[in-house]
């Protein structure tokens, strides 16, 4: 079945083939991380850490979330235990606030016909609650996929995300982790955060807002080709 793209998205033809989705379809498959990209997760984790550890770490001080304990003299195992408990706390996981500018832009992309693929370093054991959070916040659509990491298969998030963007034929990835965008080898947008400062590879564009991301995606689309119709794809 063919679906007509909205006139607002009428596009000039180009030869930018690297951004064409799988099966040669001229549309964007947009890969999106969840935590701290569409979900304001660290804000809530930090509240729990500060309360349980009796410290007062500020968001802008987070240089590396997973080694916070080292910097603040807190034992890693103690911090990791709090983190693991938070991961399986469904009430906690469902309570994260979504960045509203991200929500409205992703919803707009969906109406344009782009395919949305969430690729998160969360363990696959919390897929159900993660999907529920996406649904509650208006971020799941027809053909949207959700991939979480199988810890036994992948030693690092970057390996998992690299393989997943290749498997899905992702055109562009939106992330907050520098080691991931530097490793995946496809066009990537890095949302500027306190913990991702430093050098990035040539495929990466650092931005400070979702408004900037929207403009980059528009620009990328304008280079792809004339998209009057496209087939709906199986996922
Ligand atoms: Mg993230």
From TrEMBL:
Signal peptide: none annotated. SUPFAM superfamilies: HAD-like. It comes from the Bacteria. Coiled coil: none annotated. Pfam families: LNS2_PITM1-3 (PF24694). It is an enzyme of class 3 (hydrolase). Gene3D superfamilies: HAD superfamily/HAD-like. Its EC number is 3.1.3.-. One of its GO terms (molecular function) is hydrolase activity. Keywords: Hydrolase. Belongs to the 5'(3')-deoxyribonucleotidase family. PANTHER family: NUCLEOTIDASE YQFW-RELATED. This is Nucleotidase.
